[in-house]
Write a structure and sequence with these properties.
Length: 295
């Protein structure tokens, strides 16, 4: 297993912990638009730390490249928060696993990569694992399933495009230039858009603020590590297969520390736990395939 894939595994664990912290902040009254804005600002600060890695601006005429990637990032976030806020989480979360396959497709179409069969099979298995890990006993509310699937697929598409474009355009700039410039654009666009969608600037006071800043801080850290590794190692597709294990780590964290997060998921029924166990086995199979298969 190469160093960049170990980094992807670390990012999966960091993301899982951050997501549970953010979920607790939402339970304490922090809204989705406030979460989006704070997450973008903290991620922008994290990626600015990559500036010493160096790089160059190939040409001022190429500033459209980080702009396109920034729009892809914001669009992906908008779709995922709309899917969770207006749709059914039990439908949206499994569908987001489609991103793993889409990354493999985009990297092939955009970058001309020739991906081995082990990676394609690993992508399919990890997508299946995400579905199994998010099985619930409750049926989704009627009338929302179709909308939720559409929003979640939109999110997966934009985030997969984001990863593929970073891998394709980032090396010419260097990790220390492309990523900070792109994320600075994301932060500026988020600040401009928030008053229109969030009802004014956020007021992050009370018990939810500490949970939100802690969670978005971990998510920003893993984002910085993950996208930097994509630019440096140009290995987006297998990295996403490993990163998809975040579903497994989330289950583990809920089981070990769900009471601390005040999560109700630790009380899931026996049928749900059995599906999650099967999903964990499938996920480990996908990771092992990418780790030890010929690449």
């Amino acid at each position: 297993m190469t160093f960049d894939l170990w980094l992807a595994l670390l990012c999966a664990v960091l993301f899982s912990a951050g997501a549970l912290l953010v979920k607790r902040a939402n339970q304490l009254g922090v809204g989705p638009w406030e979460t989006t804005l704070v997450s973008n600002l903290t991620t922008a600060l994290g990626l600015m730390a990559l500036w010493p890695m160096g790089g160059q601006i190939p040409s001022w005429s190429l500033w459209w490249q980080p702009a396109v990637v920034a729009v892809s990032f914001i669009a992906g976030q908008a779709f995922v928060f709309l899917a969770y806020h207006r749709g059914d989480v039990s439908v949206a979360t499994p569908v987001l696993g489609v991103k793993i396959v889409l990354v493999a497709v985009f990297t092939t179409l955009i970058g001309g990569d020739h991906l081995p069969w082990q990676l394609w099979l690993g992508a399919v298995l990890s997508t299946l694992a995400v579905v199994l890990l998010n099985r619930t006993d409750r049926a989704p509310a009627s009338g929302k399933a179709g909308m939720t699937v559409a929003l979640a697929v939109g999110c997966a598409l934009f985030f997969a495009l984001f990863d593929a474009l970073v891998q394709n355009w980032g090396p010419a700039w260097g990790a220390g230039r492309f990523l900070p410039v792109m994320m600075l654009m994301v932060a500026v666009l988020s600040l401009v858009a928030h008053p229109f969608f969030g009802g004014g600037m956020p007021r992050l006071k009370g018990g939810g603020a500490a949970w939100l800043w802690s969670g978005t801080g971990l998510i920003a850290l893993q984002s910085t590590i993950f996208v930097a590794a994509i630019v440096v190692y140009k290995n987006a597709a297998p990295a996403n297969v490993i990163f998809s294990s975040r579903g497994l780590w989330t289950v583990a964290l809920v089981g070990l520390a769900g009471r601390w997060f005040q999560s109700s998921e630790q009380h899931a029924g026996g049928a749900v736990l059995r599906w999650r166990l099967i999903g964990a086995v499938v996920m480990m199979s996908a990771i092992a395939l990418v780790m030890f298969g010929k690449r």
